[in-house]
Amino acid sequence: MADSFGKGHRLVMENREMIALTGVKKVQSFDPKEIILETELGILSIKGEQLGIKQLNLEESMVDIQGYVSALIYHRSTGGNSRQGIMHKIFR
């Protein structure tokens, strides 16, 4: 379901082992312990073990992730460019 902010965002998780997401704009980083995504609703960190991107289609704003999920964290928007906010925190 689309909203006034864009295409909308949906997250479906099955048994903490599979996640299907829509409304994904960009994959900022990924490794087996953490995947960071830019979504229609801001930055989302997915933490866990043996995480991997099973399917990625940015034209359709979709990503499927597999592995053991221990945490889903939506980061508050600090206003302005999200990347600038993250880079600013790293190099402060």
TrEMBL record:
GO terms for biological process: sporulation resulting in formation of a cellular spore. It comes from the Bacteria. Pfam families: YabP (PF07873). InterPro entries: Spore_YabP, Spore_YabP/YqfC, YabP_sf. This is Spore protein YabP. It comes from Desulfosporosinus acididurans.
